[in-house]
């Protein structure tokens, strides 16, 4: 382990942007293993992210929704007798065979040639299993087969027809499945931006669209959305309108997707311009075997010169004037169109004049200035900021404190010691933590990968061996870690627990040489769909001309709220900030 600096430096605003040191990221797990230099996110296709659902299914773009009715009518006579080949099942085949058996899968594939229906001999008594089968059939066969259940719990499978397409979707119990769930593939766009676009075209409120988690802009990502009481064809038709966004795998469900309904993300990352290739294998093996510190990455703290945790600190102190000033102050790293408005407000405090020049896309700033134009109350202005942004400020302060505590804990060693906390497995209703026992330490039944640290809040237990550290660091900011309730309910923080360390699962990598600087190194889900190729690691790798430039393509799975940049930081031993060497600029 290694600490990059021996002391913490607090910067309210930096012309170079937020640094790792500013937000408590200071240590490595294995400093003795050398890293390697390379560039990340030179192209947005260098960073592929696929959400993993609660059942372990990796979300991919495997179809582009339902066909347009006009197209179907136009082509009906020409293709009336033409039988479309069955879809490529790819990885779905093994999952289907596990649930229903190979014979049933083969019989279902025959339906695309015979056009008849098929009824299984086997009965499926377990309702949860039947639900899983129906969902998997919908995804694997791209909605082209209808499944239903007989009274004696056997499965009936038939080719989809116009009449079955028009039926109101219902569950086995006869209840209407009112939530439309679908896959969202996006290129170089933020999740909130996409929800806004879809909402605008459908003429609904963005909050009517739900998802399990947000995905970064700079990348190609796949995730699930859900909308209540929405027609499939209406949403699917957006594929011809949206740019950089594709929708598919539509199905009706009885429940919406809720925030947190995921098991993590699968990443395919291209690291370019590697100049010390000889270090790559050892560095990635070290990451695979020894893991990384589960820091909150710099994305958690915003992209401007002022970190969001600085705003959160002011809010938690009750200094709302300072919070508003931090959000509105002139900054180097901010949207250029907003700079004049920021300067005007900083120099004159004329909210009305500044509002005239503030772009609407600067959502927090625009809403604050709108409120200040009506009334000088800073707290009222903050409460005009969209709910998710308000929470982001205070949550990022929690993340900052957690990062600092994690660095302090790693500095003390990677062995489990008295005072460390682990999750209480006996507690099923709420997530609780308990001190590790002397027996667990002696028998080594708990490792550093079991240790959790709390984000500060009123409903967490602080570790006995670090509680003084929490108290000291937060007292320096004028905040009491034992008093996290506030008069404004949403600023009252209950806290949560986060694993100190993590290891990526299924980490594999491939070396690649290429010639052109901006040459695409991997294929996206959309490109593979258009090529008619199944999504496999081999098909992911794009054909390139062998050249003098070196790259490594790595695939790994991380848990919920774990940052790929923090895993790469451990492997590469490279600064992940905007002025660091990892990111292409």
TrEMBL record:
PANTHER family: PSEUDOURIDYLATE SYNTHASE PUS7L (PTHR13326:SF21), TRNA PSEUDOURIDINE SYNTHASE D (PTHR13326). GO terms for cellular component: nucleus. One of its GO terms (biological process) is pseudouridine synthesis. NCBIfam families: tRNA_TruD_broad. One of its GO terms (molecular function) is pseudouridine synthase activity. InterPro entries: PsdUridine_synth_cat_dom_sf (IPR020103), PsdUridine_synth_TruD (IPR001656), PsdUridine_synth_TruD_CS (IPR020119), PsdUridine_synth_TruD_insert (IPR011760), TruD_catalytic (IPR042214). Residues 291-503 form the TRUD domain. The keyword tRNA processing applies. The keyword Heme does not apply. It comes from Wickerhamiella sorbophila. Gene3D superfamilies: TruD, catalytic domain (3.30.2350.20). Belongs to the pseudouridine synthase TruD family. This is Multisubstrate pseudouridine synthase 7. Keywords: Isomerase, tRNA processing.
């Amino acid at each position: 382990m290694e600490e990059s600096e021996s002391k913490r430096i607090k910067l309210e605003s930096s012309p170079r942007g937020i640094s790792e040191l500013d937000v408590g990221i200071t240590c490595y797990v294995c400093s003795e293993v050398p890293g390697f230099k390379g560039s990340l996110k030179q192209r947005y296709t260098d960073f592929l992210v696929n959400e993993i659902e609660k059942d372990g299914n990796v979300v991919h773009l495997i179809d582009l929704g339902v066909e347009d009715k006009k197209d179907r009518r136009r082509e009906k006579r020409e293709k009336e007798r033409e039988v479309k080949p069955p879809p490529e099942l790819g990885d779905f085949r093994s999952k289907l065979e596990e649930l229903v058996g190979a014979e049933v899968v083969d019989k279902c594939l025959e339906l695309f040639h015979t056009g008849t229906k098929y009824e299984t001999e086997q009965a499926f008594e377990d309702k949860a299993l039947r639900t899983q089968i129906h969902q998997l059939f919908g995804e694997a066969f791209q909605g082209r087969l209808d499944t239903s259940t007989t009274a004696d719990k056997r499965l009936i499978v038939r080719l989809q027809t116009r009449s079955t397409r028009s039926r109101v979707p219902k569950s086995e119990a006869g209840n209407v499945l009112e939530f439309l769930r679908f896959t969202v593939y996006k290129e170089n766009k933020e999740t909130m931006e996409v929800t806004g676009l879809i909402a605008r075209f459908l003429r609904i409120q963005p909050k009517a669209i739900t998802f399990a988690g947000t995905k970064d802009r700079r990348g190609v990502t796949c995730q699930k959305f859900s909308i209540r009481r929405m027609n499939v064809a209406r949403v699917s038709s957006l594929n011809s309108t949206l740019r950089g966004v594709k929708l598919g795998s539509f199905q009706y469900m009885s429940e919406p997707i809720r925030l947190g309904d995921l098991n993590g993300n699968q990443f395919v990352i291209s690291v370019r311009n590697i100049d010390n290739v000889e270090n790559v294998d050892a560095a990635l093996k070290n990451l695979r075997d020894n893991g990384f510190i589960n820091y909150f990455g710099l994305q958690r703290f915003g992209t401007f010169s002022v970190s969001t945790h600085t705003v959160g600190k002011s809010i938690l102190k009750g200094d709302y004037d300072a919070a508003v000033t931090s959000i509105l102050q002139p900054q180097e790293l901010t949207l250029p169109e907003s700079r004049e408005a920021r300067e005007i407000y900083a120099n004159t405090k004329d909210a009305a004049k500044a509002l005239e020049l503030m772009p609407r896309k600067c959502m927090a700033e625009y809403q604050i200035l709108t409120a200040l134009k009506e009334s000088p109350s800073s707290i009222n202005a903050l409460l005009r900021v969209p709910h998710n942004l308000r929470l982001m400020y205070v949550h990022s302060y929690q993340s900052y404190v957690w990062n600092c505590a994690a660095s302090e804990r790693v500095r003390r060693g990677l062995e489990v010691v008295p005072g460390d906390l682990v999750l209480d497995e006996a507690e099923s209703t709420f997530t609780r933590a308990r001190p590790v026992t002397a027996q667990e330490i002696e028998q080594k039944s708990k490792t550093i990968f079991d240790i959790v640290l709390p984000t500060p809040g009123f409903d967490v237990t602080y570790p006995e061996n670090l509680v003084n550290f929490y108290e000291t660091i937060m007292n320096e900011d004028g905040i009491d870690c034992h008093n996290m309730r506030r008069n404004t309910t949403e600023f009252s923080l209950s806290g949560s627990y986060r694993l100190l360390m993590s290891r990526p699962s299924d980490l594999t990598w491939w070396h690649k040489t290429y010639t052109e600087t901006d040459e695409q190194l991997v294929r996206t889900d959309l490109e593979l769909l258009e090529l008619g190729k199944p999504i496999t690691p081999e098909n992911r790798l794009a054909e390139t001309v062998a050249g003098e430039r070196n790259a490594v393509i790595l695939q790994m799975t991380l848990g919920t709220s774990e940052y790929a940049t923090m895993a790469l930081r451990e492997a590469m031993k490279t600064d992940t900030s905007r002025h660091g060497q990892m990111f292409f600029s």
